[in-house]
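Problem 12. The chain below contains 343 residues. Write out its predicted structure in token notation.
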Amino acid sequence: MRAMRRLAALLGAAAMLMSAGGNAHAAAPSFSGTTTIGTHNAYEKDKYTYFAQALDSGASLLELDVYTDILGKRWRVSHSNPLGNDNNCEAAKTPAELYSKSRNQDLGSCLDNIAAWHQLHPDHRPIIFKVEMKVGFYDKGGLGPNEFDALVSSKLGDIVYKPSDLLGSTYPTLDAATRAGAWPSRDDLRGKVMFELIPGTVEMNNPFDSYWTDEEYGDHLRDLYAAGHIASAQAFPAVLGAAAGDPRTSRYDASIRPWFVFFDGDAASYVNGGYDTSWYDSGHYILIMTAAADVSPAISSTDPTDAEVAARLSLLARDHASVITSDWSAKSASVLSSVAERG
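Solution.
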């Protein structure tokens, strides 16, 4: 009897080891199956002295506000000054120059900083760069989607995860790829960056501009795909603003709806508005919930406790967010790099 009990114990231990081994080799979570933390307006100097420090922060999304500079043929980076640069991006193109050069640079220099930082950390977490085009594109003046793509490509090359990467050689639209679960794992996206484009506050309040960044870049993706040049596109346009159901249906022409798989809106509106956010999760769409601190019960938007951040991440992960954002730049990398299971 004792021998039989010993044999049973050994068999049980072996089964536990096999189970542990199976878990150790379980598939890594999909990029769309996790919830992470981002930093609002990470380019501002009161959040990080240098943009490289924002990259060091552990945050999975960093935001840049961009204005078209028609005369200079470039994009300025600033919150409220369309005539000048006001940011923590440096005139630094190499790793050795980071954390030391003059700031208040244009978008090209911000991208240079990303490229230099990437050289120091080639295996970094996947990072989304949310670009708010404050006044929109100005295609007639040489600052349109093509020029944006060319700038990003010239600065960052193959570290950008692009729409064509999601499509592969299988899917005809981003929506088809996303609904099929084509997003890679987070591990497979290590060392990669993505760009999300949203229309800007000035653009949306301009009575003479009804052709906003989201629609313009959606048209751009559709047309590039039809021409066989989708590989040149560098960004994902986002549907801006929380809404019930599929917000693409009421906002866009049917020809570009399938090119939107990023959604971006106020967290409290999603959570308290009675919206069915499980729709985003089941479709494997990327849902960015902003102003995460304002969801009831509200917590500090600048420096909550670590426990409060963890609880808010868990709460909004259950509400199917892909990324939650706030002004939490004061938090440590161990906090901002947190990853939760979505749903």
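Discussion. DSSP finds 13 helices and ten strands in the chain. Students who got a different answer should revisit the alignment rule from Section 12.3.
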